[in-house]
Amino acid sequence: MTLRLAHASCPAVCIIRPHAALSAAPSGLTACHGGYYLSVSMAMTNSVTGMELVTDLLPESERGHAPDNMHDIPFGTLFTDHMFSMTYSDGRWHDPCIHPYRPISLDPAAMCLHYGQGVFEGMKAYRNGEHVLLFRPADNIRRLNRSAERMVMPRVDEDATRYYLKCLVSIERAWIPPQPGCALYIRPTMVAVEPKLGVRAANKYLFFIVLAPVGPYFKEGFKPVRLMVSTSDARAANGGVGAAKTMGNYAAGLRATKLAEGAGCKQVLWLDACERKFIEEAGTMNVFIKFDDELVTPPLTGTILPGITRDSVLVLARDWGLTVNERRVSIDEVVEGTGSGKVEEMFGTGTAAVITPIGELLYQGKDYRVGNGEVGSLTRRLYDELTGIQYGTHPDPYGWVVEVE
Q1: pLDDT tens for residues 57-93?
Q2: What is the spatial distance between Cα 384 and Cα 293, in angstroms, rounded to a whole number?
Q3: What is the CATH architecture of 225-398?
Q4: How many other C-beta atoms lie within 10 A of the C-beta of residue 220?
Q5: What whole-number distance in Å separates Cα of residue 118 and Cα of residue 227?
Q6: Does domain 60-214 correspond to CATH entry 3.30.470.10?
Q7: Which of 80, 87, 337, 379 could cysteine-pair with 343, CB 3.0–4.6 Å?
Q8: Where are the domains of the chain?
Q9: Which of 89, 106, 78, 87 is nearest to 208 (CA)?
Q10: Distance (Å, whole) CA 336 – CA 356
Q11: Which of 394, 321, 405, 331 lies closest to 368, judged by CA?
């Protein structure tokens, strides 16, 4: 089946062409040009005006669905039947298409392989009965564009990209697991594909979206983790790309993460690159510290990724009347606070795990327990509220949730 969406200043038209001719138009569709059409009230603008979205779908009999044993499948190792892709060349994006999941062919000289021009995003689709929900997708796409600008890559049209994403998720809705704590992980990615040896920004890019049904990020579920404070390696430095979601940021953390795992820790607690003194992030998550009189998270000064979950926690906590501060926090302040009781809770925030309780820190060879080492009451409340909004079981007064038709 082929689906064409013609974007112009007027409402788009979807033309669905089945493999076999039908004797009559399907319900809700009207015969048109050898296929059938359905008006869509959506006007695309800017860089994608006039493009057609083509979908090349597998027959229903060849499509899969989310397995029943999602909790037994490692996070991010299973993918859906279809993906989205489009290409940038000659100064514009073109050829947007939803097609079967397949390998990407790259020239050995593709610039992403040599000079690291690549950015990506992470978000999820949630199932609530027959309803499919996205959480703050517009914010993720805006952040993708900020990352692209930092890496001297082209922006995507945000309205169009959000629409393409929703089309893909709708097609793959059978892959969204219904089990509690499970979701469909969404990975938009942009890479430089121009074949060229020589350091400069590329002239050709590939943008694609793949989907992965996932269970909990940590197999242990919602339980406190132990972190190793890294005093040697650093995640990002002032003036660098720490605020961009780019591949190199994650590669830079692999060595310290391996050391942490060898020390019996789940992740790394990162300190600033200059003084090795101030807390920045927890593994791939933003980090929060609940003192006895305030909730604190490090400020966004260019070395820390501006997390969507981080921002959601800040909004919730302030609405609940908590004293919330974005300020620098030294590791010494936290270590002393664990001994005096001033530090009551710590947790990480991010799309993959949502909220991760932090129960213990390994710093300079010594363990420091956070609170009583268990999940704190605020951590639990934030997790329950955020996941409730994401799954559509709690009210959403902020307009964060978007339903996929």
Answers
A1: 999 999 999 999 998 999 999 999 999 999 999 999 9
A2: 22
A3: Alpha-Beta Barrel (3.20)
A4: 10
A5: 28
A6: yes
A7: 337
A8: 1-43, 60-214, 225-398
A9: 87
A10: 22
A11: 331
- Residue written as token pair 């800017």: 46
Q: Cα 264 from chain centroid?
A: 27
With tokens 């993906």, the residue in question is 83
Task: For residue 209, give the H/E element and its range.
Answer: strand 205-214
In the block, which residue shows the tokens 């409340």?
A: 381
Are the C-beta atoms of residues 185 and 76 closer than 8 Å to each other? yes
More confident residue, 330 or 180: 330
Using alpha carbons only, what angle is made at residue 116 by residues 115 and 118, rounded to the nearest 5 degrees?
A: 135
Joined together, the tokens standing for residue 153 give 């890559």
Contacts of 291 (CB under 8 A, 6+ apart): 337, 342, 343, 344
Handedness of CA 374, 379, 381, 383 (dihedral sign): negative
Q: How far apart are the first and last CA of the chain?
A: 19
Task: Find the length of the chain.
Answer: 405
Q: Does 60-214 match 225-398 in CATH topology? A: no
Q: Tokens in use for 110? A: 């593709």
DSSP one-letter string for 184-201:
EEEEEEEEE--B--SSS-
Q: Which of 76, 324, 122 is closest to 216 using CA atoms?
A: 76
Q: What is the number of other CB atoms lying within 10 angstroms of the CB of residue 58?
A: 15
Share of the chain above pLDDT 90, in %: 85
277 pLDDT higher than 70: yes
The partner residues of 289 in beta bridges, in order of sequence, read 296, 346
Whole-number CA gyration radius for the chain: 23
Residues 6+ apart with CB under 8 A from 136: 123, 308, 312, 400, 402
Q: Beta strand 295-297 with 118-120: parallel, antiparallel or unpaired?
A: unpaired
Structure tokens at 403: 């339903």
Calpha distance 72→219 (Å, rounded) = 8
